[in-house]
Amino acid sequence: MTLAERLCDEARAHQAQLEVLPCFQALASRSLLPESHRALHQALALLHRDLTWALAAASHPALVAASAEDPPLHPLLEPGLIHEPPQEVLQSPVLIRAIALGERMRSAVHREPLSLLGYHYALQLAPFPLPGTTPWHELTRLLEGVSLEPAEEDGLVHAASEAFAQVRELLDALHPPRELPPAYWLNRDAGSHPITADVDELRAAVRAAETSWEEFPYYAWRYGEHGRHFSWSDSAWLVMLGRESDDAVWKHVSWLGRLLAARGMPRLMLERHLRVLHQELVRAKPALQEGDGVLSRVAERMAGERRRFIDDETMCSLAMDFDMRVGPEWSQRLRRTGELLVAAVADECGGLAQAVPSLSAWMCEPSRFPTVWIHAVEDTLVRARALCRIPS
């Protein structure tokens, strides 16, 4: 099946789902509430701005060509509406989903550049199909003369599917209006915990989550898109903690660290995320100081607890040995696995009994990993336990 055919099938399946939504039907009948219409325009403006930025930041000829195209406004949308993206505080929680997708597109510039064509296809050409258009042919034209690896083609189709799904959920949220916690728009299973409504802080939170997932591919391998949405909502909640005292934040973060470690995520992952989140907040809010901030201080306190049991030099040595044993292919596929194994042992020494079993059971599954990997995992855990210090 060609790429154009795959995109055609993908588009038809998603468009069939879009067209039965109450919001789409209200658009078609011109009965969508004015506030919902304004929110839709703002969401599309956010997505258009982020996609335009991402395409402009990429250098591939097909992406340059895509960035030069500006499709006509669909007749279902109101040309007279002001649709500038919000600058400070979100007026509608529905826009949270648009911000999350926008940051996904921005991260694709260095993560998987050609996947931007999938986002472009779904957002610029296909979500509200104009009568008589064949948008997948337009994308095929952009790709003329471009040789795609199978993984690049899969990434492009996956990006298109992701964008369609996010647009569908956005439209579903717009109409009929519902009173739901803001965190719902990042993660439907997040519950009612608070998240920031500040546009810059929300972007920083999602960027930090995306960076954490790039740093530890284990996240995606084990937890998939469902887990990614939890990272978004957790990160947006952690931003709110930055307004509290060090002791209060430590209490919250300690609870979250124990919970995640028991589910297979050593506390090193949360420690690293707090550092990245602080850095992103500093970029988003230049008035903050790089060396200041409760999230950064709490991250250092977590690192201090870890180092009580296993110092950084020992962790680095064991991690390097692990990478050598599994070889370059696997050490790149799941970067920093050796560090995660050693960090899980440090968590175990600190009293988190499930820290190692919750990680090793997944890491030693024969249907998932080769024998050399499993032996390296088991040996690294044994060596880390032997080297773990128990403070007097």
- Helical region count? 17
Name the CATH superfamily assignment of the largest domain. Answer: Heme oxygenase-like
Count of spatially separate domains: 3
Range of helix content: 55-70%
- Show unreliable segments: none
Net shape: globular
The helix/strand class is mainly alpha
The secondary-structure element order is HHHHHHHHHHHHHHHHH
What's the CATH first level of the largest domain? Answer: Mainly Alpha
Oligomerization state: single chain
What Rg, in angstroms, do the CA atoms define? 23 Å
- pLDDT averaged over residues: 87
**Tally of DSSP β-strands:** 0
Question: What does this protein look like?
Answer:
With 392 residues, the chain is an all-alpha fold. The chain has 3 domains: 3-179, Heme Oxygenase, Chain A (Up-down Bundle); 205-309; 312-387, no CATH class. Helix content is 68%, strand content 0%. The protein is built from 17 helices and no strands. It has helices at residues 3-19, 22-28, 34-57, 61-67, 95-111, 116-125, 135-142, 150-174, 199-215, 218-241, 246-262, 267-284, 294-309, 312-333, 337-349, 355-363, 371-387. Helix 3 (34-57) runs parallel beside helix 5 (95-111) and helix 9 (199-215) runs antiparallel to helix 10. The longest helix has 25 residues, at 150-174. It starts with a helix and ends in a 5-residue tail after the last helix. InterPro entries: Haem_Oase-like_multi-hlx.
